[in-house]
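Quick illustration, no need to memorize.
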Amino acid sequence: MDGWNELAAGLNAGSIAARIIEECTTFNFATLRDNPLRTLLLSTGIEVEIEDGLVDTGCGGGGYYRPTPPTIHLHPATYRRDNFTLLHELGHHLQQTHDQWGFTLLDMADGDRRKIEERVSDQFAAQVLMPVGDGDCRDASLHPADVMAGLYARSGASRPATMLRVLDMVPEGSRWILAVADLDGVVTAAASTYDDPQPPKGIAQEGFRRVAAEAMESAVRREFHEGIEYKTGSILDDLRVEAALDHEERFVFLALRPTTVNGSGTWKYQWQECPNPVCGKSFQTRLSSGRCDTCTDFSCPHCNRCSCTAPAPPTKCGTCFLPYTPAEMTSGKHECW
């Protein structure tokens, strides 16, 4: 099979995708990279069905491939996300119709086949949409945030896809946490190459907001003692951060690595005062049962209340029924006492 047996044994998705691209003569990959939708619509080997009448589920997007007749069904989203979706589904088509790799897939158990086929399709889309050279790989090992920003500017890929492409480029064994955040510090995508967990998506990181503000002036390279906050209330500290704005100046690409000798960040825990005036105790957030979905405060382990479940403080004295002043509301004691 001219090397395909070795590729199949190793199940290296990146190498398999690269071989499929190298051997494919059906498509012009330069035009596919520049405009996947237009190129596929003009193709005679595969159809594209655009299905834009679907119920809006939030972010939209996605698609799937049907082999008979060969058709990509696209659920439109942003053009950058559509680019990756189209090329991912084209990857399924080229894998299943390949005269050697296609038969290898058929010999696999269903679960194994689906897993490797998805990984190869991801790699196929990434390699077509975001070609890289030796210089990019070298730079990614040193300054991945800069490489993410540059790759995003020169490709038609989405920010999360760009982040994952660079994640694949960093050397094996290196310790990086990669993330994409908006200018308010809210994480939209994240990944880690080692045991320290990635920043949780959807949570505003005050440290990332500060870094984004600094990145408006120039690329950021500094110690990051603001730490990464997690849903449990724990904070990962002792990190260095590098950051670069995207060319649209709407999001920031971040790369963090540990500074400690053992190669991991260190953990610390916040203290919070209970918002319930009847309780008023302070507690470490790691002792809480978790954040409230409504107010995002941690529930107090002593009274099990958060900001939105705490009773409102009285505005009038219960003895003389005169209004409290702001100072009296804070202390809970009125002058008639």
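The radius of gyration is 26 Å.
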